[in-house]
Amino acid sequence: MLKEFKTFIARGNVIDMAVGIIVGAAFTSIVKSLVNNLINPLIGLFIGRIDLSNLVLTVGDAQFKYGSFLNAVINFLIISFVVFLMVKAINTFRKKEDNKKDTPSEEVMYLKEITELLKKNKD
């Protein structure tokens, strides 16, 4: 069983997943900082307050803290939007890189021309 576990851990997929989790955790702290320190204060300028957690609906002895829920929903939407923008920017960059790779070099173009000429002369 120990040998199987060692083989499992040594696979590239598990190592890639571990790296992804570590990078994801670091990325999460960056996005949370962006949301808490830059975006939420900007929203606070428009709605008058940043922290909605004080909003409570009391029915009898029960307290419904809908403000905390609203904070969580707003943070989720902001974080999701920021991640969307970052993924979109990364994909745009990748497309540009792919387009650069797709254009053949001058040497390749010359070789294609030579090949075509040789085929014409052969016929």
Question: Can I get a quick summary?
Answer:
With 123 residues, the protein is mostly helical. Helices cover 80% and strands 5% of the residues. It has a two-stranded antiparallel sheet with strand order 1-2.
Average predicted local confidence, pLDDT: 80
Q: How many helical stretches?
A: 4
User: What structural category arises from helix and sheet content?
Assistant: mainly alpha
Uncertain ranges: none
Helix percent band: over 70%
Number-wise, the strands total: 2
Radius of gyration: 28 Å
Order of helices and strands: HHEEHH
* Proportion in β-strands: under 5%
Q: For the largest sheet, list the strands in their spatial order.
A: 1-2
What does the largest sheet look like?
Answer: 2 strands, antiparallel
Q: How would you describe the oligomerization state of the chains in this entry?
A: single chain
Backbone shape: elongated
Measured between the Cα atoms of the first and last residue, the distance is: 65 Å
Instruction: State the domain count.
Output: 2
Family: Belongs to the MscL family.
GO molecular function: mechanosensitive monoatomic ion channel activity
Function: Channel that opens in response to stretch forces in the membrane lipid bilayer. May participate in the regulation of osmotic pressure changes within the cell.
Keywords: Cell membrane, Ion channel, Ion transport, Membrane, Transmembrane, Transmembrane helix, Transport
